[in-house]
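OP here, attaching both records as promised.
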Amino acid sequence: MRRWLGGLLVAALIVIAILPVAQTIVQALVGQDHVLEEFCRAVATPRVLGLFTHSLLIGVGVSLCCLAIGVPVGFLICRTDMYLRRAAQYAALLPLAIPPYIAAIAWIKVLAPQIYGPAGVVGVLSLSYLPFVSLLTVAGLTSFDRSLEEQAELAVGPWKAIGAITLPLIAPFVFAGALFVFVFSVSNYGVPALLRVPTYPIEIFTHYSAFYDHRVASLMALPLLLVTAAAVGLSYAMMRNRRYVSVSGTGQGGGRILPLGRYRGAGSAFAWLVIAVSGLIPLGVLVMASGSALAYWVALKASWAAIVRSLGISAVSAAGCLGLGFGLALLIERARWQGQRLLDVATVLPLAVPATVLGIGLIELWNRPGTSWVYAGMPILVIGMMARFLPFSVRILASSFKQTDRHLEEAAALTGAGGPAIARRILLPLMSPGIVASASICFIFSMAEIDTTLLVMPAGSETLASKIYTLMHYDVGPFTVALCVMLIALSMIPVGILGCLAATGRSR
């Protein structure tokens, strides 16, 4: 890759994802006297410390639940002969298309008023974030050297070999998934707000958007940023030089399928119960609550502008993440230069930035006379979504590079093929599953994004997700529920594409 192009890619990463966070830190610490005293007044109070502890406990609780449920589900759909295993591999992806705040609406319809409270928040977030642990469990099962497990099977049998060899080998993947879940849970704004649970992110959001106390909000953001950065840093250390995903399909290459024997019914029932509760039941509840087709027609007529705007913003965000992510992954995995490790770390750091912190940084960075065209229009939404979801694109594409044989590129180079020709004729065809997966994940998450959007959304730039969230606080009637179903349906298109890719990967 040409040096100037690599420099341009790094500069884009800095502007989109690094500078907003740096701006938040500068806003909090620089140019003010008595910073420590202000920080103590803002944060070191019993109420605020209680909210901070409350948020941490929610994050820990959700992570433990996802570990307890997500690991067995990932193992069952990847390595056992459970009933309807292929269908389960597709259905397990459904929670990715249901935003947590929409899942909360479904469970409010079923369990209100019992769901209001911390236990409800932990339950909803656990069901929503299960795929992060189960998919990373599958990635671990499809990545390690099978010969070690095969040798242990000859000595102690297949199931004891799993406990002695397989689980320790996939532990970094499992705990990395749990750390990601912790980061997303501890900084989630939408679900606690809907379930009437005060948390630290809600407090930051209130100080910024309701009290207009930007200084205090920036100071309060720092402890949350430190906690999430530590979790992401630990996850990065666990996953360094490992593949975050297997883009050839959820059941591909994970070792021989183990018979469950007399426990086949129980194991299958457990996996399908989890899949039903996390995805199928919430979707079914929403479809029934939406009433007749009239609700969808009214919702479409009243919200077509927001729908089109969301599709456009999400498509541009996904395309931007794909293009920038491909270039950055290429720099990390293929280029040879001294800054590779630093760039690798830099592409992971945005995962550590809570959505509210990112929103504050984006406003402080772009709300200036010379950049008002960015702040006052849809570009600020695209930048915000790219900043949040670019790390997913880079990780998926870096995993794709790891699964591509470098000898093919070297052989093509020996024949005189240049970089663009090698990319077009070798890399792009071989990496097509990862490319589609990257674009799909970024599109799905962008369609559902609400936490940053609520802070930075300009007047007249309402998205489908923000409209749904606004309507939730007035009336969750058929009109609002119909919009939720429409958002899920639009998000499920990429999920279907991912399922087709998985089937294609298995048939090769």
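Record two, same layout:
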Amino acid sequence: MKPLEGYKVLDLTHVLAGPYCTYQLHLLGAEVTKVESPRGDMVRIWGGTDEELAARVGTGFVPQNAGKRSLCIDLNKPEAQDIVRRLAAEADIMVENYEPGTMQKFGLDYDSVRQLNEQIIYLSISAFGQTGPNAGRPGFDDVVQATSGYMSINIRGDGPIRTGGPVLDYATGMQGASAVMAAILQKAKTGEGQYIDLAMQDVTLLLINRNTSIAATTGEPAAAPGNRDAPMLGRYQSADGYLMLAGYFPAHCKEICRAIGLETFADLPSSEFRARIDEIDTAVEAKLIEKTSAEWDAVFKAAGVVAGGVQDLKAVLDSGHLHERELISEVASPAGTHQVTTAGYRISDAVFGPEGAVPGLGEHSRAVLVELGFTDVEIDALDESGVIYS
């Protein structure tokens, strides 16, 4: 039994943040019907093999859409809007991440949908929110990294850097799923449907919580950290790459010294250790360059030291961590099989993964309409007139 089994999610999202949110809801057991335009979600053709791109299930689309149903319709047509209204009338949850005002143009905004379904939980995801000084401003992950202050605390080399991921899209998707679960609990208490306004900019400010708190309290931002904050606290070079040491306290620093073979320093009285810390740090630098990141990582692991080698995802995969922790599940698609992530936690010894395949564009259009009560003749007519694509 999954927490959201029996729940129906109407998914009017595209790109990453919204689809990752509804993917989390699917992992928890909800049936998700994804509404796509005739062109399909724009990330269907973001990367992959020739076969995957031909089938429009590229690597940009697969990881956050496995297990969903795809309904392909042209929302510019009134008949298509009516189909979505009929779906909304039966849905428990509706999620959209278009620019503010778009759903209102189609008559699918919260106020309109609530007239059809007073109990619905409706989530709107946007870059900057439905209110505020930037309401309605469009934005993607990389833009929000700039506007939120996130890049300002990640300064390396020649200036602020954009981090990979894209971390803000995925963080917003996870926060969206958390907000939906909170709304479900709120609805259980009040008996009323709920509207959720979630902005990527807001989620980013939560991700840098300490910095946000400092700036709000003092009126000034905290200084941006570097790759090394103190002796034995930060990034160091190895023979072939980098290591991260976490010497937050003298005891941590002594453990690092002992693990890497600098016992003479590790055995010093704390007062002398602190007095000679710069000399010790120089010796640590010289020592770490003698072995590879992987070799030192093994040393740190065996010694129980809070430090680690910087490794790529292939090395993480080769370590067996993803499979041992059941973070990966295999799913099928029109172009073959793929490995996608699960919910990432274990409840009562169960891990929640996707159920079903990665959908082709419009693969379930006909089935969805049949469930709504449309006849084959009516569906054929909608197909021929370009209202739906199946």
